[in-house]
Amino acid sequence: MTTLGDGGGPSATSVYSGVRSSVSGASDVPGGAHKHISPHIGQIDSGEKMDADRMDEKRKEHMAYEYLCHLEEAKQWIEACIEDELPTTTELEEALRNGVILCRLGHFYAPEILPLRKIYDRDQAKYHAKGLHFKHTDNFNWWLRTLEHVGLPKIFYPITTDLYDRKNMPRVIYCIHAVSLYLHKLGKAPLIEDLLGTATFTEEEISAMKLALEKYGINLPSFGKIGGILANELSVDEAAVHAAVMAINEVLEKEDSSETLKALRNPAACLVDVLVENAPRYQGTLLKEKRDKSAKAGAQNGDVDDSQRDVYEYMLTRDEIQRGVTEVNSTVRAEIAEEKFCNAIGEVNQAIVGGDLQQLLYSLQSEDTRLKAINPDNVQWYMDVLSKAIKDKAEMGGDSLLTRDEIQDIINIANDIAEHTRLVQAAVVAINTALEEGDADSTLEALQNEHLDLSDVHPENKDYYYQGLRAKKQGKEESGSTLLTEDDIQEGVNDMNQTAEYDRNVEEAFAAINYSVKSGQSAQATLHALQSEFAGLIENIREDCAEEYLAALRKAQDEKQEELTSEEIKQIVEMVNEKKHQEELKNQAVGEINSCVGGMDSTLLLQALLNPHAGLDNVQESNALHYLNVLTAMKKSKEERMGESDATLTQAEIQTGIDKANEQTLKAIELAKAVSVINWAVDSGDSAATLVALQAPAANLRSITEECAADYTRSLAEAKSQRVGEKGDGWAEHRTRGGHAFYYNWKSEQSQWEKPENLPEQSSHLRREEIQVVVTKVTAEFDRWTLLKSNEPLITQLQARIRGTQCRKSFLSRLDFLRAHEKQAVALQAHWKGSKQRKAYRERLAFLNSQATAAVMLQSFVRMWRGRKAHRERLQFLRDNVAAVVKIQTFWRAKTAKRNYKQLVEVDQPPASSVRRFLALLEQSDIDFSEELECQRLKAQVVQEIRCNQQLEQDVRIMDIKIGLLVKNRISLEDVVTHSTQIKKERRKGGASVSVTTGDSSALLSTGLGGLTKANQQRLEAYQHLFYLLQTNPNYFAKLIFEMPQSKTNRFMENVILTVFNYAQNNREQFLLVKLFERALKEEVQSKVDRIMDIVTGNPTVIKMVIHYTRGERGHNVLQDLLGPLVKEVLEAKDLMLITSPVDIYRAWINQMESETGEATKLPYDVSNDQALEHQEVKDRIRKTIQQLCSFCDRFQASIMESVQKIPYAMRFIAMQLRLALVAKFPDAPQDDILKVVGNLLYYRYMNPAIVAPDAFDVVEMGVEHQLGAEQRRNLGAIAKILQTAAAGKMFEGENSALSNVNEYLAKAFEKFKVFFLQASTVASAEEKFGIDEYSDVIMLTKPVIYISVKEICSTHSVSLFFDDDLVQGWNQALHGVLSVCKNTLTDTLNLWIFAWEDSCTLGLLF
């Protein structure tokens, strides 16, 4: 390969000498630099006709490009601030979401507010492993604190969801731009660059950003108006600016640059880019401008009195001072740039003269040299050519240093030379690559490269080139080099041409061999062909194998049915030679074995058997002696059989003898092991083990009987004990069936045929023959005992007769004695029985006295059991006679009713108890109907007032926003007046309400609807049926809630669902609403909850609906009664400070000491939790705080637990349904886990917010002028934190380890909370609570009505139609039928209703 300076190619110096004359005319060659062209997004050619869609598409593309430019500007500015590289522009938004980059930016300009240790997941390891975590929002909050610290107006602040959920990322980038401009004005950060029109992006990036902006659905903020907004928000104190400018003019006259610098850097002067190093220049320039201005003003107004002249006529204004500062900075920067240019060119010449390649490259790449097309790979060429140029210039006389233009021209020439050299090197690299990764064709193509001067490249030799060059390359790799050079390739091509010629001669030689074999020539002719010099077989050919060669070659040709290759011929020759050689060696080895057989030296025989040429298998050294005995016997047998004295064994016979000896050895080992096991079992005394060992097939023992196992063991043990011998090292002698002695060590399990040296003369180890003798003897004795056992009945009978005779004789003798002394015997028995009875009585009495408590308890259990038994018998009796019981009860009730009716009729003033029983029989009067109508009217009025209040609240919120925007000059006063007029107009229009029911025709006539057509009447009835189905069947609304987007669920809940249920004003509506909540909750648990804690970590729609309903119902008063007194007590405790953070307590302690002593403490102010806890004072204060916390928490918990019955029924009912639904879906889940979820609903979602923010929930009454202080909120937050942790069954660990002392209290509090949660989630069913069943609507005096607006009817109808298929799936098709009637009449009906009533109506329901 040609390399620079190694002589492999033209050197830079030689090339330069030939082209030196063209230096002056050389042009700049870009060295791989890319030319960037700014995209003209949104520009429309005047000659191009575009439709509206295309113009809108161009506008969106321009907006996407503009936003990408702002992203790139923010990225470069943040990188300059934090001095670190950020992800690409398109990935910047995702990288900002965890807040780490923003916190690092905040640390840059406000390190005292945001130290690095406060950044969560600073190395982003958790973010890269598991993604976003909710604690990443802490980073965003810390960043907002830094913005507040530096004073950025809050109009620029984004909210958490803008960043964390990517709901408005342009707002975040807008804030970063505002921060950059604001900090630059304060002199704390560099100015952000304007890249609009200069930054370039691909079409894919612009298209992706356009889609992302469309997904946001928002308009881009006006980045160009940030400066104006900041100017409006940050009003400048003109007096302070004037004073600062006057101070600058005064200090200029002192000609003290340091004082001038201080005046210029005064923040009140609002000057920017005031640099310390330029202070003397500022002094001179500004002083000259001031004097020139003063002189000019004096010349123009010489006759005017100084008191009547404007001070700024002879003083510099702020703009003039800023302009002077800017001019000085520009001048200094230009001087520095020119100086850097001259120094850079000088460094280049110095590096050339010094021959320093690294310094030359560094100097050439410096921006100060203004050189182009610098390629680091060509630095050696630059050095060679530039050095030659300096030498030539020195020889010509004059200055030998090169100018910038001369250096640029030479660099261009050197690039051309290097490029040519690279082409040659690339061709060489291509050849090396083809050799490593390609094939022969690619190698041939690379060799034929025009840039290489290779001669004699023949295509027919391509395979030789590939193989030969590849081998040469591998050889160089082994020697340390990796690539072939051009010379190596030329040498390899020549060598391969010679190799190809030689291989063709070899091919002809082997073709002659194939012809000789195929044509049937003689063996000698074939031998002559094999001995050809090109065949390369001369040294391996044996003339005595000519016939074998010919036969083997002919056989191979016949099998292959084609000519043999050279390798196959060589293999056949080698095979024939090897076969011949192996036969000779085999015969020699067999002869040596026969010579050893019959001798006494087993070692020589073993060596002969192990000879590999003998071809014997399974020869084992340990059996050498036995091989000698067996083979000797076989040889003698063969001599006797053949009648010859010198008969020899063949190789097969020898192998048979070896196998036979090995088999006998294995059997001998098995026999020895079996005998050893028998001896061991006998020694252990285990008869079962002895029996198993005796029955082993290897032992080959006869007459073994299982019943004699114990006798075998005992007899063998006795036999062993009678043998007096040495145990030795464990060796024992055994005899095979052939009579050969075999020795086995039962300790080490070694075996051999040679007699061991340490074999004892007499061993205590029993041999097989001895064991067989003992076994035979024991078995014979057992057989005799068996014979006796078979005649046992006869023997037993004989023994019984003898014993019976003896017993009768003794009994008769004893009986005669007792009859002779009968009186004495009776008296003795009576005395003995009395003594025993008295003793037993005393023992029983003492036992009962010692166990009095147990006896009483036992008696109570017996009485209780008897009582339960009697109760069960009574209950069973009643069940058996249930018909009679019913008759008795019927008779008694009839008698009671008759008595009450008689009392009602006959008594002038019957009691109320009697009248109450017969109220259902009274007729309905006009008064009853009037009262019912009045009740309905009042309900309608209540609903209208609720809706009116909601609208007023919404109008107030919108008006507040309008006023805020007006104050900030974001909208005009006319917009506010217009909005106010619109609100008043809507209020005047919303006064009337029309009743539309099926039974009030007068109302219809009075409003112009008395003449409804039949079609319109059918439409009206369809809507009445529709809302009745939606109200009474919870499945529809439950399914609708889950099908709708979650962002619209809350609004649908407030505007439609509560309206349909009339805000639950009576029992029926409350019943239907809680049934809806029940169904929706079950649907949520079944479809969306995969783990129990999903209810806690998520934000279920049903839970939000229940919380919203209960807080708006009677839950507000409950929270006020429950928590109000305690919260008020906490708020009124002025000295109460419930601080739980060790760092905050430590700092409060330091502040207290400094305020008391008036001196600064020596303790550090910024410490960690562990360092703060090292101080005993901090520990004491934490302990005191924990005691106060636990005291307050006990009172709060006691109040909560006493309020079970005060909690709204809907909340308790949903808690019960949540508990039952979780138990049904997770039957194996612990009860504690389920109660934690219930507690999350009852405490965390319902009660905890009222403790944390009592002013927001009106738990305590506070005037508009009073607001909760930071200390009060912190105290309530600390109490809520303890209660929340206890309700969740958690402990303080990790970051909250300082509160670990509270864990015991938390455990006890959780046990109390569990009882509370279980009680609160156990209520009567809704049917029982409200007395409602499926027939309640049938017996109603008046039909149910709802008070709903036309807009809500339209919204409900549209949503129902949209989700029609999902709503009716799995249930009855009643709703589908009603919707089909209304489907095509929605527009006409709404037009009719809107014409009649523009606000709301009363809709009766049909069922």
TrEMBL record:
Signal peptide: none annotated. It comes from the Eukaryota. The keyword Phosphoprotein applies. Residues 1-56 are annotated as: Disordered. Keywords: Calmodulin-binding, Phosphoprotein, Repeat. Residues 14-29 have a biased composition (Low complexity). This is Ras GTPase-activating-like protein IQGAP1. It comes from Geodia barretti.
